[in-house]
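seq/struct pair 1
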Amino acid sequence: MSTIAGNIAQVEARIRAAAEAVQRDVTSIHLLAVSKTKPASALREAYAAGIRDFGENYLQEARAKQAQLTDLPLSWHFIGPIQSNKTREIAEHFAWVHSVDRLKIAQRLSEQRPADLPPLNICIQVNVSGEASKSGCTPEDLPALAAAIQALPRLTLRGLMAIPEPTEVRAEQDAAFAKVRSLQDSLNMGLDTLSMGMSHDLESAIAQGATWVRIGTALFGARDYGQA
């Protein structure tokens, strides 16, 4: 078994245990492999071990990997900050976008989504911790943004994404993720997706309702940004 395959098995075991601890159906929780800075060969290994969904933060890097992996039936998720000049390629080459935080970007994605593809799955990124360095709309701006995105053609608003301020204190993790869930519930739009939780806090995220956990380091090892 490769290192990546072994890591995937360990993460999947953590997901099962976290789901059982709060009596959730494990099939409602999906593993998104965050593969930024990792070579296409690592994604092939992960695919061989059963992974089908990959999250990328950088468009140019993602497009290079997509070109190398056209023989595999992968589902690509864009999870990084989005510049206006990148929306067309994202609309054309991804199935999900987890990081929409303003209407202009959503409008461009809607306009540029090819008609022969299914609607683009959208999550709104919310800055629940109020960090100046983090992307995401404010909780106060969320209702209006969600309503506007839901009305756009060629997009399907699925739910919320968040990256809370990192902490190793479980109670603080729980509070942040519970806030995301509460914000989604308060929209009353029937949304089905909560994209939250990473390698260090996936148990807390699952306890608070995560449906996608975005795992990079625990699957692929530490990132070498010098190679990105």
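seq/struct pair 2
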Amino acid sequence: MPIPIVTRILVADDHPIVRSGLKRVLDAQPDLEVVAEAEDGAQAVELALAEDVHLAILDVSMPRMTGIQAAAELQKRKPEVRVLMLSMYDSEQFLFESLRAGASGYVLKSDADQDIVEACRRTMRGQSFLYPSAVATLVRDFVERDRSDADQFDILTPRELQVLKLIAEAYSSKEIAAELVISVKTVERHRQNILDKLGMSDRVELTRYAIRRGLIQP
């Protein structure tokens, strides 16, 4: 894809002050423009599919759908949209899951003022952007990679991950059914499948797992 003269950017974060700060920094550049804002992952996907957007900047942890889940959905439905992940967490697990979901880079919020412009430009050139310690993490993982761990990440289907996130956020089965537009019976079947696959017995264990997976914040 040729690099556009002005990159049209979607910013998704559940904190308005973060969106405002990113917009201020990006709009100050002649080749970057924020054209859409979202407050959760589901809205980010909707806007990215509907708008003429070249790049989506997604916060890792958001309500309804995480940035990682949104990135995976965009990779599947509109792969031409480039994705950058934004996070306050220097987390190996968030980093790896972001890259698996199709993100081109991972920017820490603590360094966003200095890094976000370069990260956007590298992403649009088809390059990756990672903060320094992330590079060391990837090198170590390459050397010490254990494929069984990678298999564990994919034990749940995308729909089961959506249900798990909502269970961990204390949604009732009826509320989950309404949110995902499925029947309560289907929600209960997903819940049981998740428990069986993970070898767990209750919502407390599922919530702990959801935190480890980066689906919700502790």
